């Protein structure tokens, strides 16, 4: 058997098409309840990367047949010793050395670019959950990757929402949020809020559980937010935002995001939800998520399920919110998510390679699982982290966003 690996970019349409077909087939096999592998998103990953990110792509052929591809993202603004990776092998051509060859190729590139860690994601099955491919975990173990962060994909069945109970939960929460009001918008953030969104976005990795993932908070400003929006617009993400505005200061102090991809109108990802530490304890997170759910469903009536990825440590919080909102978030199948970035009892884990490199939808996910990669995901999926002894990839925290239309609504239609 002969394995060849060649780099490619967006100008090589044949290679792009071959890589897309590999990714689409792997998605259907490994994540059967996920939306179809989105061609628009895939092309945008190549042509319109996130700001401050350099992307390297390579295609592997086995005896001349396209067999796998590699995507390496090299942060340029922060985390300059880290990288994220997505390594995908066609399901029919696994266990023939293609993944190992791509791994060795990636390790060489990572060392050439001074990277010490690489993060990736892989799918795993949860105890008592649906069967999932063990290929990602087996490959990670064979390359010396270590599990650094586990996340569980949870799925909301929109048809199971008890709207009467949800209205009651909101009525109970709103008195604690006196002095705050909600604002919502679609797509591009209104200019008056972009600085506050940058502040909240920059706090995400400060507040989120990272376990053994060595990933520093990103330095986010208004220009970076605008660059992220352009990249997410190119990917076709229809984004629905809701913020909580502090009336005394005029600042947005809480923010949540739901988004829908171009390949499936029945599926959404719950992406970021964050409350500024100085304003916690007012039920702002619950109010924002519940009202944004209504915002989404008003404009996307075809949505049937919403996936999200959360660390197992947040299980108590999820039970609390699910009960108060009467929304059934059930653990779901895990896997790499395009949540740019989750299902019945599934989970994902981030694997780390030290001395080497650490990955997005390629991160190892422990099935119980998106995330959703929703996203971002950022892009969203399972995670695998490896140290530079071999490879590692940073956690899949990208979020796909697509500009739909700009506009702000003071207040949100009530349930």
TrEMBL record:
Biased composition (Basic and acidic residues): 351-360
Region Disordered: start-end pairs: 320-415
The N-acetyltransferase domain, residue ranges: 3-211
Segments of skewed composition (Low complexity): 320-330
Matches recorded under InterPro entries: Acyl_CoA_acyltransferase, GNAT_dom
Claim: Transmembrane helix is one of the keywords in the record: no
Alphabetized UniProt keyword annotations: Transferase
Domain of life: Bacteria
Biased composition (Basic residues): 399-415
Record's signal peptide: none
Pfam families from the UniProt entry: Acetyltransf_1
Stored PROSITE patterns: GNAT
GO terms assigned for molecular function: acyltransferase activity, transferring groups other than amino-acyl groups
Protein name: Acetyltransferase (GNAT) family protein
Originating organism: Micromonospora chokoriensis
Taxonomic lineage: Bacteria, Bacillati, Actinomycetota, Actinomycetes, Micromonosporales
């Amino acid at each position: 058997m002969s394995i060849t690996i060649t780099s490619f970019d967006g100008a090589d349409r044949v290679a792009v098409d071959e890589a897309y077909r590999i990714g689409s087939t792997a998605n259907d096999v490994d994540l059967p309840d996920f939306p179809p592998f989105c061609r628009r998103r895939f092309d945008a990953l190549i042509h319109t990367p996130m700001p401050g990110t350099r992307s390297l792509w390579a295609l592997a052929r086995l005896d001349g047949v396209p067999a796998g591809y590699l995507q390496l993202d090299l942060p340029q603004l922060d985390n300059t010793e880290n990288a994220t990776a997505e390594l995908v092998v066609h399901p029919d051509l696994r266990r023939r050395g293609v993944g190992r060859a791509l791994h060795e190729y990636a390790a060489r590139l990572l060392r050439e670019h001074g990277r010490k860690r690489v993060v990736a994601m892989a799918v795993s099955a949860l105890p008592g959950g649906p069967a999932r491919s063990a290929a990602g975990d087996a490959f990670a173990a064979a390359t010396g990757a270590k599990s650094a962060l586990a996340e569980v994909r949870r799925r909301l069945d929109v048809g199971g929402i008890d709207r009467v109970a949800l209205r009651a939960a909101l009525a109970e929460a709103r008195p604690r949020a006196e002095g705050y009001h909600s604002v919502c918008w679609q797509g591009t953030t209104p200019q008056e809020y972009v600085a506050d969104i940058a502040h909240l976005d920059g706090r995400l990795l400060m507040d989120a559980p990272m376990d053994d993932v060595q990933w520093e908070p990103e330095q986010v400003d208004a220009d970076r937010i605008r660059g992220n929006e352009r990249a997410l617009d190119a990917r076709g993400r229809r984004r629905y935002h809701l913020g909580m505005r502090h009336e005394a200061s005029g600042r947005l102090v809480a923010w949540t995001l739901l988004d829908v991809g171009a390949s499936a109108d029945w599926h959404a990802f719950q992406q970021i939800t964050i409350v500024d530490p100085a304003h916690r304890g007012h039920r702002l997170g619950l109010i924002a998520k519940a009202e944004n759910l209504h915002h989404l469903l008003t404009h996307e009536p075809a949505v049937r399920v919403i996936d999200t990825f959360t660390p197992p440590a947040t299980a108590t919080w999820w039970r609390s919110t699910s009960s108060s909102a009467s929304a059934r978030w059930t653990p779901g199948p895990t896997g790499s998510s395009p949540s740019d970035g989750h299902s019945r009892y599934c989970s994902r884990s981030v694997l780390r390679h030290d001395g080497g490199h650490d990955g997005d939808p390629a991160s190892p996910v422990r099935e119980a699982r998106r995330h959703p990669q929703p996203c971002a995901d950022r892009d969203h999926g399972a995670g695998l982290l490896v140290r530079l002894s071999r490879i590692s990839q940073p956690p899949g925290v990208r979020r796909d966003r697509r500009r739909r239309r700009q506009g702000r609504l003071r207040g949100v239609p009530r349930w």
